Hints:
Layout: H1 21-28, H2 32-38, H3 60-74, E1 82-86, H4 92-100, E2 105-110, H5 113-120, E3 127-131, E4 146-150, H6 163-180, E5 186-194, H7 202-215, H8 224-231, E6 235-242, H9 244-260, H10 262-269, H11 271-289, E7 293-302
Parallel strand pairs: 1-2, 1-4, 2-3, 4-5
Antiparallel strand pairs: 5-7, 6-7
Helix pairs in contact: 3-4, 6-8, 7-11, 9-11, 10-11
Amino acid sequence: MSAPAPAGAPADTVVNAGASAEAIRHHYDVSDAFYALWLDRSLTYTCALWGEDGDPAETLERAQERKLDHLITGARATGARRVLDVGCGWGSMLRRLTQAHGVGHAVGVTLSESQAAWYRRGPAERTELLLESWQEHRPEDGGYDAVVSIGAFEHFAAPGLPRAERVAVYREFFDRCAQWLPVGGRLALQTCVKGNNVVMDRRTVADLLFIMKMIFPESEIPAVSEIVEASERTFDIVGMRNDPDHYARTAGVWHERLTARRPEAVEIAGETTVAHYERYLSSSVEHFRNRHLGLSRFVFEKVR
Length: 304
Ligand SMILES: C[S@@+](CC[C@H](N)C(=O)[O-])C[C@H]1O[C@@H](n2cnc3c(N)ncnc32)[C@H](O)[C@@H]1O
């Protein structure tokens, strides 16, 4: 839940109850060059959307582009004047919105300094990347026609909060999105979720705890029911799909790519970091395959 603002902060400032900026940087600031070795060309660092025909030759690049297009279409962002991307990573969604979907201006927020610095070295036209949390974000131009968020929601609540407090943090996010959107405006949200298979062997539990401690500190994966509850009375859910197999395949491809470039990865990030990422990516394949984790893609529509 939002803590009160520290002394001296503006009255409407809230303190992020999820992962701190330091925790986010622990992960995303490892090194752009390290991530570039195993992500696709656009540096999209979230589950892709693979084709229905299951073509084993499909490239990660194409599947990532399809995912961006799916969320853009869901949010009805094509041709929009202004769109916000909450947790924009290295900006692939901002570029897709303006370069392929005719969006007038795309704004992204991230907490990662190295993502912001990378973007500033070659900013794309009609895009803007801000180094701030969604909780601090105040749009300059009255709001947005559409909002998207991919793979950031997992960072919004700290581990170990009681369910009611987690839901309160998520509700704060939905309330903010509602403030930014017109009635009928849409939010496309993709996030990992807890899976409904809660039976786990010791190794699975150890791997999940390792990921929470060493890879994504201060973050907890939401349950679908918490997301639904938090959005009630503000948004209708007009689309939802669960694609755990798509994340198993995406993590598998990332793992293969990292292994193929291992010597370079070790040179950039060091042996320990590379070994940690190998364990995180290979165990993630299993977590999604075994339904210990799910991958939700929601479309919400503001009702009032
Ligand atoms: C897994 S990355 C996904 C990046 C991008 N959406 C993509 O698909 O490649 C998560 C992103 O969420 C951002 N993030 C996490 N918590 C945030 C917060 N409270 N406010 C803004 N961005 C946040 C991180 O900085 C990072 O850019």
